[in-house]
């Protein structure tokens, strides 16, 4: 088994992910060595228990590697890993880069100069026109537009980039044979036909589910030089993408809308918290030029005087049993100290795509606060 084949196989296995695989490679020396390691050796690695070690030891019961590679070849889909020169540099440098990227189309070095555009699946006429206009202008300025090929703002962002004669990358939350939504297949074909790429980190036949979209969002955020939210309600996956982007140091831009339009509430929330209000693509272009020369400081939500003080951290109160397992683990990691996103991810062994939205949910529940310096701390349970 080659290193590339080993990575593809590991990416296909259940219960594993970039962080656990990285721990295994760091401990065992190579991806290939993971498959020949003993149960005892596997279980000595952080985050690897009996269940996962058993999956690895019997990996061929879960994965048909030769069929995956053959199917990709027949469909003219490339599978790249961090070993490949074309693997996007911004992703390579991110905290939990995808193990593999399945590419339909082509990615170029110029695609590292990219702006992510996200927004609601339900849209207004204003939102659709605005997304198309911004993407068209960004393409004219030489930026690649990255989005998720979803209905609504994503679709009009890709369309605008193509209309502007530019390039666009669609990062989807499913395998490439399970395109979602299916009505965007024609758009995907246009993107892949010399104008960019449709990209997924998931095995070819992976169907979309509630976990794949947050994982997709972290790629959109990390690949981009900045994230533009065009139209989004106050509870939106787009805000999760913006939250991830802010945590990893990407600037956030938001388009204002009517104060009477619920679909603009998320953008207005981001603007109140410090995102840059923009009304045309040149605003983003000039801002990025300025931040490259002066150094970028991520925006922080405004805090009250009481919130800026170090919280009194409980020493013995356990995480609420009412919380989902992931949120309880994150809350527990903050029991004794304030932590950065990377530190929470290390302690919990959860992927950033799970940690970031869970932190947002815990903030909304009033269980944690975000401190200056992008640290998180447990405030204590609500009464």
- Give the % helix: 40-55%
What would you say the CATH architecture of the largest domain is?
3-Layer(aba) Sandwich
The description of the largest β-sheet is: 9 strands, mixed
Shape: globular
The total tally of domains equals 3
Radius of gyration: 21 Å
Order of strands across the main sheet: 1-2-6-5-4-3-7-8-9
From the N-terminal CA to the C-terminal CA, the straight-line distance is 56 Å
Percent of residues in β-strands: 5-15%
Count of β-strands: 12
Secondary structure tally, helices: 18
What is the H-and-E element order?
A: HHHHHHEHEEHEHEHEHEHEHEHHHEHHEE
CATH topology of the largest domain: Rossmann fold
Name of the CATH first level of the largest domain: Alpha Beta
- The assembly state of the depicted protein chains is single chain
């Amino acid at each position: 088994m080659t290193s590339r084949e080993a990575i593809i196989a590991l990416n296909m296995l259940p219960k594993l992910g970039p962080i656990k695989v990285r721990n295994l490679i760091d401990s065992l020396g190579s991806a290939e060595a993971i498959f020949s390691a003993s149960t005892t050796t596997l279980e000595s690695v952080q985050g690897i228990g009996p269940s996962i070690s058993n999956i690895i030891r019997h990996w061929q019961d879960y994965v048909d590697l030769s069929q995956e590679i053959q199917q990709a070849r027949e469909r003219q889909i490339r599978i790249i890993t961090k070993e490949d020169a074309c693997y996007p540099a911004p992703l390579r440098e991110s905290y939990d880069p995808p193990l593999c990227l399945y590419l339909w189309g082509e990615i170029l070095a110029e695609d590292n100069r990219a702006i992510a555009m996200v927004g609601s699946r339900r849209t207004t006429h204003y939102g659709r026109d605005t997304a198309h206009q911004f993407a068209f202008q960004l393409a004219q300025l030489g930026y690649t537009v990255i989005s998720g090929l979803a209905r609504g703002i994503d679709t009009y962002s890709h369309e605008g980039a193509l209309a502007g004669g530019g390039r666009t990358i669609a990062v989807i939350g499913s395998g490439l044979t399970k395109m979602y939504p299916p009505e965007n297949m024609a758009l995907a074909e246009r993107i892949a036909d010399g104008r960019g790429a449709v990209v997924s980190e998931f095995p070819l036949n992976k169907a979309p589910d509630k976990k794949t979209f947050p994982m997709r969002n972290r790629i959109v955020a990390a690949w981009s030089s900045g994230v533009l939210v065009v139209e989004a309600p106050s509870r939106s996956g787009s805000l999760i993408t913006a939250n991830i982007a802010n945590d990893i140091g990407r600037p956030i831009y938001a388009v204002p809308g009517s104060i009477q339009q619920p679909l603009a509430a998320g953008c207005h929330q981001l603007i109140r918290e410090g995102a840059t209000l923009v009304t045309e693509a040149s605003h983003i272009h000039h801002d990025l030029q300025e931040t490259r020369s002066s150094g970028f400081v991520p925006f922080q939500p405004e805090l009250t005087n009481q919130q800026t003080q170090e919280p009194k951290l409980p020493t013995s109160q356990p995480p609420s049993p009412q919380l989902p397992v992931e949120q309880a683990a994150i809350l527990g990691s903050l029991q004794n100290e304030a932590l950065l996103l990377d530190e929470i991810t290390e302690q919990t062994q959860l992927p950033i795509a799970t940690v970031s939205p869970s932190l947002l949910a815990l903030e909304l529940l009033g269980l944690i606060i975000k401190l200056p310096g992008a640290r998180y701390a447990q405030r204590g349970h609500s009464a």
